Structures are given as structure tokens and as C-alpha cells.
Amino acid sequence: MTLATAWVCRGVAAEFPHKYEVDEAELSRIEKLAKLQLADAREDLDAAQRRGADEDNDDESEDDEEDGGVLADIQGGSATTKASADKDDDMKEYNLSDYDDDEEVDADTGEKFAMFGNVRSLAYHQAGEEDPYLVLPDNDDSDNEREELQILPTDNLVLAAKVEDEVPHLEIYVYEDEADNIYVHHDVMLPAIPLCLEWIDVPVGKDTGSKKQGNFVAVGMMQPEIEIWNLDVVDSMYPSAILGQRPEEQEREREQDSKKSTKKPKKKKKPKANDQYHVDAVLSLSLNKHHRNLLASASADYTIKLWDLNTQTCAKSYTQHKGKVTSIDWHPSESRSTTLLSGSADDKTVVITDMRAPDAAAPRWTVEADVERVRWNPHDPEFFYVTTEAGTVHYFDSRTPPSTTAVTADEAPSKPLWTLSAHDGAVSAFDVNSQIPGFIATGSDDKKVKLWNIEDNKPSIVVSRNLEVGRVFSAQFAPDIEVSFRLCVAGSKGAVQVWDTSTNAAVRKVFAERTKVPLPQGEVKERTIGTGAADDSEESDEDEEEQAGGDGQDGGWESMEED
Predict the structure, then answer these.
(1) How far apart are CA 112 and CA 70, in angstroms?
(2) Cβ–Cβ contacts within 10 Å for residue 50, how many?
(3) Which of 77, 97, 319, 496 is the most exposed place for a label (fewest CB within 10 A)?
(4) How many domains does the structure of the chain reveal?
(5) Rounded Cα–Cα distance for residues 342 and 305 (Å)
(6) Is residue 152 included in any domain, yes or no?
(7) Which pLDDT tens digit goes with each residue over 448-482?
(8) In angstroms, what is the C-alpha Rg of the chain?
């Protein structure tokens, strides 16, 4: 399945990504990272070995007593005598006693082979001449490999966080819009199930120097750490940086305590939330577009943490919710660039926090169900969207917060400007088109992707599609104006689809006047470009139930307009 996706702008990726190189400095860095990451593994291994030793001690002692006499008889004189006789027979049969005395002779020259070869028969050539026996390999293979890795300035990268056959990894696709092609450029193995992605355009980690532009991705996973990978490096072994690793001293203490313990292992105690690192899964990430070294992360440990990418440390930790923080988003305007929007699944609240004054009273909105996604409106940044598990989309005005300061949704839900009943299941995917005003997309557990027109605060559906990705986990518009109508959709089947929404007549009719991008004219076949489904096993049971139910729909294809 594909749990998250992210776009990379055109012209940012290196034209020829380089291969991962290991030098002394990199080995030292890997060794330090590996020591920290292996602390938990060592503790689990020691516990398993102690359990196995306790269970096997009794059985081994009984077996030793029963087999002791038999082993003594087998290893007695009769066995020793027979083995010695067999050895002598083998020595005589193959003349092994004189094996080292034989000297082989060259059949052509009649000369004996010396230990270091026949030096007198070697061929020589003058200095500066080519060695007649040395054949250098052609560079065709390396040139072909370099050409295969090439990324053109007109290409976009699409990042997909996947789990296939219980193997978590990150796939980096090259999307060629003009060629109607998408393919895997390279991939990265991950230590845990990835849950969220955030593209980072600033250099992170070693060898950053005076560089101002970077091509990195932050990966939030089921484990508390956040890994940052360089997308311009192929075949990387370790990330460029890891945010939120536990202090090395604490890992040493845990390892020593594990070695000292001789009792049967007890269930691990869940670590408490703190100000330095997360202690539970990372559910959402957001990079500040104006202060580009600041990355915010939301976690299931109820906290939001602010990371300084220059020092790769936690600058501040916030606790604004009484439950898991599922989604966060920085304010898009520069004047309010320190304002963070956050939503929680457990307490069903949405909070706006000024990170410069975290202790000040923060306005709080409540909704009727668990919060799935929160997003500011980039075209009118005083307003924001909230999607819920109940299948609704709410639109709030940040300037008119509710009078109540309730921390949970036990109070009546706050009144939005409008509410949209978008799907029959949770709205698990949501995006606002940054180039075309009033254009939003939603995706859901009901396997549908819907496009909406919300101009003049009157939301209306434009088109609905089932793109055969299973339950929809991610739907994102491309960031560049040239491909602003491209929507990347991914879900539980593992497939990644890029839908050119401009090839739909209803979309062109509604949004043609809001963009300067040339659009197709006349009758056009709808275009989707994607990868094949990786695993349909998770969908088989649901598909059978739907077929048996016979809901009478036409395969999920709905449109408000027809060609």
C-alpha cells in the first residue's frame, strides 16, 4: 500500500544524481547512527536469549545424562582404531604423503613451475607503450547508466511512501508530463512503516557548506524518529540526518541495565513525552516556507515539536491537544509565518498556535468527529479547512474563534462558514490547488476521489472518479503552474496514479477562466498515468462485499457535466 505522497518542483533535482560514496567520515557517521539504532535490538535479543536459555536448560540436562554413556562408547578405542586405519588407506591410495614433493613440468618448454611462476617467460613492453595483454573495459555501460539516471529540468519527481510484502520503503518516481510517462528512478529502504512525507528544499546534514538549495525529504514513521534523505543520492545506506534520536547516554544505560538483568524480561514501559524527542509515531510534518530551517512534526504522543534543521535538534515542544495530533500546517503568509494550525483525532479539536507565544491562550474549534486533515487556504489565508472521519469538510474563519475554550468536543461543535458532506467514509486525503483558486480535491475510504468548486463559499461537486487505487490515502496537486491540473492519487492497492484533470470537460468548463495555462480543446480522452497495483489482496474481501451488495452505481464514475 501507498500511505503518503509528495511532489518535487521542476528544476530542483540534480540532472545527474550521484551514487552513494563511503569515506572515513561517512563510516564514522554510520557507526554512530548504528550504535543508537541497535540499542533496542540488542535489548530484545538479550531478552529472547534469556527466555530460550530458561526453557532449554532442563531439556539439555536430561539429554546429557541419557546420552553420556553412549557417547563414551562411541568415542572409545574401537572407533579410534577404525578411523586411523581409514586414514592410512586414503594416504596410500592417493599418494598424499608425497604430494608436496611433486614438481610440475611445462609440456612445451620442459621447464619446472616455480613458486612464483616462470619469470623468464614473461612478456615485456617499453615504457610508454600499451600493454598488449591489458584490455580496458568500454565506458558504454557507465554512460548508459548515467543516461538512465538523468532527470530533465521539465521532469517532476513524485515521492511515494510504501509498504509491500511487509517491507517499508520510499520510491522516487520521475514524472514526464509531455511523454505521458512515470517510472521508478530509485528507492530507499526504511526501518519502519512510513506515515507522512514532507519535501525539504534546504540542504540538511553533511557537506551543506554554503548551499542554499537542496532536494531532501523528511519521512515520519511508526517509530518516533524522523529520517531525512537526500533525493540527489542513489543507493544511500543511511539518511542524511535523523531527528529525535534518543541521547546516547540514555541508550548506554538501557543497554547496561539489560545486561545486568537476569530475571525474565518484563513488558517494556512506554516512555514519557519530553521536550527533546517524540516517543510515539510521527503522523504529520510541515516545513515553514518562510523560515525554511524550521520543520514541525505532530505525533501520537500528543505533542508538536519544532525542529531546527541547521542543528538537527528540537527547538521547542508544545502540548496543545489531549490526544493524538493527526495533522499540522504552517500559515502561508509571511506576516503570520509563525502560526501553526493543528488538529487532533482524539479530542476532536483544531487549534491555532503562535509559536512565539505558546503559553498564550490559543483559539480552539471543535468538530463532530476525529480530525483527519487541516489546511490553510493559500488564496485567502484567513480561512482554513478541516476534514473529518465522518466524511465532512468544514471551512472556518480564523478571525472569529468560538467563545468557548473547551479542550474536547464534549461541547457543541463550532459553527463553520459551510460544511460539505463529501464522502461516505473518512476524508483521509485532501488538497487545495495552490495555482487555481477555488479548486480542491478530496479522497476517502470509499475509494473515490472528488473535485470541488468552492468559489463564493458555495461548494459544488465538479467530478468524481474511482481511480482503482483502493482506499484513498493521498491526493495532491502538482506545485508547478505548467502541471497545476495534475493530481497525484495513491491508496491501499499500492498504485500511484497521476490524473490530468484538465482532460475532463467539466473541469475545463469550471476552471478555464481562472488559469493562464493552455487547456485541451474539443473532445479529449481523459488521461491518467500511473504504476500498476502492487497488492490487491487487501481489497479482495471488500470488492466481493460490494459486488454482493449490488449498489447499482456505475463503477464509481460520476460527473456533474458531460461532454
Answers:
(1) 54
(2) 16
(3) 77
(4) 1
(5) 12
(6) yes
(7) 999 999 998 999 999 999 999 999 999 999 999 99
(8) 32
